[in-house]
Amino acid sequence: MSDHLKKATTLALWTNVFLFVIKLTVGIISNSITMISEAVNSSTDIISSIAIKYSVRISSQKPDNDHQFGHTAAQPIATFIVAVFAGVLGLDIIQESIKRIISPADVSINKYVYIVLGITIVSKILLNRYQIHIGKKFNSPAIRAQSVDSINDVLASSIALIGIIGVQAGYPRIDGVGGLVVAFFILRSGYEIGKENIDYLMGRAADENLIMEITTRALKVKGVEGLNDLRSHYVGDKFHIEIHIEVNKLATTKESHDIGKGVEYAIEDLPNVQKAFVHIDPV
Cα separation of 114 and 26, whole Å? Predict the structure, then answer.
């Protein structure tokens, strides 16, 4: 699993480095705040890719004495930091874009601006499809966050393209408006990434569908006569489950133990459950 996640993060990193270089070069030459905003957007993607690449490596490490349930919290922590960083940069771009709307700067549009935006849109669409596939297959919040960011980049670059066309048509203030729209997508991306990972960091409980699945699996284990308590919370990007099962009070200690282990194995077989703690209540 970790090899696939590492490959996905490496691909995203080098794609974003390439896009940053060509956007910044064309942005400086054209003096377009829209293009410079796009370059800043790619710089946040680079930082995001580095943080996520490092967090994927940490999260794949085996449990140790200091982290006895593993290192799965590394991915949510990294992606939340990225979300905060994106918010700060988005606000900076808004400030500069407003200045450009009030006092439009001279902008020199050439064919390379269109080429760069076209390359960005196509490459980010392809990257998004790949990230969605890997994120779902391996249940990685970090890769899913990157896929959200990639599709937002597609939307931002499309708006930037419209803004550039507007500038060339003789409406210089549209450059500043384009910068504002790109900033909006940066802020939205940060919000969406942060919102999901807050749930991981705050230990949100499992949803109703997962609770139903856990209940069904537990009751199917031979010897379980009922349930009287079930709690759940995120540890990293996976759930820890605490469940109380009812077992015949006449069952031997070994029989009760085996029933509890059966429930534990049945629950931990779920892909988004890391650990199940089973308490046995004699009835």
Answer: 10
